[in-house]
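Hi V.,

You were right to ask for the full record rather than a summary. Here it is.
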Amino acid sequence: MILTSQFPRFLVICIVYIFIWTGLPFNIQANPPNRDENGVFINPYADEIRKIGLLEKFWWKFTYYAIKKPLISEKYEYEIIPPEYVNPPERFYSGAVTWVGHATFLIQIDGLNILTDPVWSERVGIFNGRIGIQRYTAPGIPWEKLPPIDVVLISHNHYDHLDYQTVMDLDQEHQPLFVVPLGVDSLLEEWGITRAIEKDWWESTSYNGVEFISVPAQHQSRRFLHDHNTTLWSGWVIDASELTLYFAGDTGYFSAFTEIGRRFGPIDLAMIPIGAYEPRWYNAPFHLNPAEALQAFLDLDARYFAAMHWGTFDQSEERLSDPPRELLRAVRRNGVDPDRIWIFAFGETRAIPARQAHNIITLEDEVN
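Predicted structure:
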């Protein structure tokens, strides 16, 4: 009798134990720690990332810019919307995105105007851009045509994603809320930015009913010689009333794309980087190549893919025009519907289709 009464309880314990270790329906490894015992941020989803010394990095950069780059033929002409035709609406409720260039999008959804990793400077780098990399393509939206900006999402502190002059101009003219990964808030505070909130992975904040969730990325952070990985890097999920968007920031390929899609799907639009990937010995852990970006999109199980992080800054050995061409080759190899892959012209705006066809509202409908 005692054995019979105890058996169901024992069986339940065994089932729960099996579920824990198999990850069904939950996974105890879903939130691995992103800091080591010294408080330095790490990439917990990577088995090991080889440390590349500053001298090794300098030598690669020197040989590329001094020897290889002059021999590279760049014949591709970028598709650019003429500035006089770029006129984003002041507000848009159903969901639209405009590509400014690199990792900068203007996202207009539920009446909010959101910028991702905003950079309008002609050069980014140390000493507020006096020394750094030159911009090859002008911002797709002229500064004076920006609508009122409510929220700025920052993925990490690298100069091509967190630009001092742009941040200061936004704060002075728009007074947005800056939503940033851990540690970046302190840097903004040094710059005099008072409206900022920082989040760890899987943490969220809301603004006017739209939720912003920090999600894992595989990257690194640094602005000076002494601050390597002292601030966090992240992607962002934007959960609005009718649509869910994902902004990857800067990242290499890693297993958490599937977890992000499982937690927050269906994801309607995934903004994923496709450039700055060669040579692979240096960039593979931290930057997706186009084929990996497509696989990340499939892992996320998203509806549409917005390609970014290409054609703006010359940061690696592939030609500036290579990423979209390589992405389309990967799309054909994998049999993905090319209509789901959005390669923007600089300054192009696209409305995000509603999940139900009868709910589709165009930009012209809302403006008129």
